[in-house]
Design goal:
27% of the residues lie in helices and 23% in strands. It has 369 residues and is an alpha+beta fold. The longest helix is centred in the middle third of the chain and has 32 residues.
Length: 369
Amino acid sequence: MTPKFFACSLVSLAILTACSSVEDREIASGGFSYLKNEVGQQIKIPADIDTPDFNDSFKLPNLGPEAPRDFIGEKLSILSPSLVLPLVTGSHVEEGSKSATVWFDKIDDSQALDTTIWNSLLAFLESQGIGVQKFDKEKQQLISDWMVIKEGEEDDSWYSWSKSERSVGQRFEFNLDLKPHGRIASLSVDLIDYKEKQTLQGPESTTPSDARRQEVDILNQVIDHYEREIRLATAQRIQKIRQGLPMELGFDEDGESAYMVNAEYEIAWPRLLLVLRKLGFDVKDYDQSTGLLFVKYNGTDAGWWSTLWSKDQYALDLKTEEYRIKVTDLGAKTSITLLDNESVAFPVNKMTDLFPTFARTMEADDLDI
């Protein structure tokens, strides 16, 4: 391609881009001369000729009484329907629903589901510089301030030649419906105010051409922000679990000798599972809600060659039999109590003997399993 031809192509593209408006992109290309056509008359068959068989396969159905009759030609939008995208784990939409609504399932027990949703929505509005006109937590309702979009301001790429003065302002109402059991909630969006100007000096329109499209668009942005927050929180949580956690000797809430991990329960629990596997424990069963694990000590898998010149650093002075472990949430810390198969706590001297190996493994960074 010659430089001259490339320059001409860019100029042609610039002209096409500048001439293309939002309205142009929403209507069909080509002319609308078909609107001037009159309804054809039925073919008249002479009396002395047999009437042919007519096929009604392509016959258009009659319009219903409430069907819009003015959405034709340039007034008919050809844009595809807007769909709510349930990207968040545990989210879904109801089949056949025409409202801008998404349902969330509770997947994090650290806080109430409605609190999680509202916090994410408020964080999204703040990140976009959008104010809140009204927020009523008891009524589960939030009304946003005006969201003003001015075309041509954000898109300053070198290849953009369009200079549109169109501005759109919108206000939305968000409503949350929390089920009585608190594990399922829906978030709905309604467009309550709208204003649009095609030019700075032009008239202002207060009626959107497609309100649902505006509602679905803002809801999808909220869902996307929610999903990114979850991914970020998950990545941060995994990083904390993989990092070493300080541990010391202490006593649990029952006064038994225990290992005190300097981490919250949600971090210490999965970290302990990694530590137990590294130390040669086989976790037979567990209940995270009660903090009880049923394990069997099998010893480490280190071969005779690796222990020929040095002692296995993960070996424990324990019999290869079944044990129990009690994990307790103490707020900023978590206690770990070792028990025998009859739920009798290990004595202090036994806990002290095992502590160096447990602590060294718990404190190791990037624990390799």
